[in-house]
């Protein structure tokens, strides 16, 4: 039940269908066998102002929030699967980063 959260630069991505980016990340996870389609939640947030290094090159940051307890190999595989999938889109950004974050299993409720 990962939550995939994509933060992207509003201006640089104005001609990009962000739903396609969400679906690409989701489908990469499903194709990898890590999670089933029915388990994945996705959302995206645009940001208007940003800096990157010493300039304002556009970037995307993807956070994959998963329940705690997964081993390091699983978390690494998750980040690589998402990154590889989204990179196929050739988006108008300088860099794409992915971070896998553990959600405390004991306090997560739905």
UniProtKB/TrEMBL annotation:
SUPFAM superfamilies linked: Tautomerase/MIF (SSF55331)
Molecular functions (GO terms): 5-carboxymethyl-2-hydroxymuconate delta-isomerase activity
InterPro entries hit by this protein: 5-COMe_2-OHmuconate_Isoase (IPR004220), Tautomerase/MIF_sf (IPR014347)
Record bears the keyword Isomerase: yes
Superkingdom as given in the UniProt entry: Bacteria
Database matches in Gene3D superfamilies: Macrophage Migration Inhibitory Factor
Record carries keyword Isomerase: yes
Keyword line: Isomerase
Pfam family, one: CHMI
PANTHER family: 4-HYDROXYPHENYLACETATE CATABOLISM PROTEIN
Name used for this protein in its record: 5-carboxymethyl-2-hydroxymuconate isomerase
């Amino acid at each position: 039940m990962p939550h995939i959260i994509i933060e992207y630069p509003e201006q640089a991505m104005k001609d990009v269908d962000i739903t396609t980016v969400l679906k690409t990340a989701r489908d990469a996870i499903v194709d990898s066998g890590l999670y089933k389609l029915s388990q994945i939640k996705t959302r995206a947030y645009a940001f208007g102002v940003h800096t990157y290094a010493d300039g304002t090159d556009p970037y995307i940051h993807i956070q994959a929030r998963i329940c705690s307890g997964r081993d390091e190999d699983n978390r690494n595989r998750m980040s690589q699967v998402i990154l590889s999938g989204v990179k196929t889109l050739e988006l108008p950004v300088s860099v794409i980063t992915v971070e896998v974050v553990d959600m405390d299993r004991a306090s997560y409720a739905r």
